[in-house]
Amino acid sequence: QVQLVESGGGLVQPGGSLRLSCAASGGIFRINAMGWYRQAPGKQRELVALATSSGSTNYADSVKGRFTISRDSAKNTVYLQMNSLNPEDTAVYYCYADILVLPTWRRNDYWGQGTQVTVSS
Question: pLDDT at residue 58 above 90?
Fold first, then answer.
């Protein structure tokens, strides 16, 4: 059974940096895409950044130039380096993965449990 385990959230001052990590495990044949979404209180969940198996990346306009997504395919892990954080980045960040799984050979979406990122002075 596939699991996504996140780490790296916390409290940071405006202008600071954090690095999130998410490792996928269990019954994985191929990861088609991995990335991060976030949900702030009272708002809908939104895409932050996504990295595909072909090497392409996609970012929300609000984080372009500040956040960088990267993948370690050998470790089935995705990272999100977040720089120049501001209070508007405060949210629960969820890891996401599009995975082709064994033994069903089905392609499913998976989510992590979420990690809190709080930007405050």
Answer: yes
